[in-house]
Amino acid sequence: MTDLPDNDLPHALLTGYRNFMSGRFANESLRYKELAEQGQTPETMVIACCDSRAAPEIIFDTRPGEIFVVRNVANLVPPYAPDGEYHSTSSALEFAVQSLKVKHIVVLGHGRCGGIKAALDSESVPLSPSDFIGKWMSLVAPAAETIAANTLMTSGERQTALERISIRYSIANLRSFPCVDILEKKGRLTLHGAWFDISTGELWVMDRKTGDFIRPSGE
Ligand SMILES: [Zn+2]
């Protein structure tokens, strides 16, 4: 048992860490040792939301070293923009594709996404282009404005629609990166979309031909 001063971190985190050390780390110590010595070789990159309820490692029940994850507000991929600015998602993508040579990229969206809600509901959640989130969510502003204006849909339907449209949008933006486009055309990289319903645990997977979200067979 690692001895840590109890005043360093929130108590729940320290308790969790101790459970991790006596449970998962103890059970998988050999795997951690191998990963430390040989480096990581994940075959899949997951681009997920920061939302605390939609952690891809938990949803996909993955082992250490199995998936390379980048999380941001509303699991968005910005378009390729080599403009000298700071691009955290793009740099993670570049590393995953060019250095780790992942074979799959999954854009994982989820229900009740706060970022998507903010993009749709500008009255109750005002976003300004001068705010970081406002600027970030402007990536999906055209779709958000179109959907927000659709009074035939309920607010829940609008929310789910934009959550799924933004996944397709992010996949389109992935293809604006030359390294992704080239490898996908060579058949060495596959792009996927998925949407997780946090209330039921259902996972809906994007049909790559139609863009529709369907329940995987056997589920
Ligand atoms: Zn979210």
Automatic annotation (TrEMBL):
Keywords, comma-separated and alphabetical: Lyase, Metal-binding, Zinc
Cofactor note: Binds 1 zinc ion per subunit.
Catalytic activity: hydrogencarbonate + H(+) = CO2 + H2O
Summary of the function given for this chain in its UniProt record: Reversible hydration of carbon dioxide.
GO biological process: carbon utilization
Keyword Zinc: yes
Top class in the EC scheme: lyase
Annotated GO MF terms: carbonate dehydratase activity; zinc ion binding
Signal peptide from the UniProt entry: none
The EC number(s) this enzyme carries: 4.2.1.1
Name of the protein: Carbonic anhydrase
Binding site for Zn(2+): C49, D51, H110, C113
Taxonomy, superkingdom: Bacteria
Classification via Gene3D superfamilies: Carbonic anhydrase (3.40.1050.10)
Cofactor: Zn(2+)
Keyword presence, Plastid: no
Pfam family, one: Pro_CA
Family indicated by similarity: Belongs to the beta-class carbonic anhydrase family.
Entry-linked PROSITE patterns: PROK_CO2_ANHYDRASE_2 (PS00705)
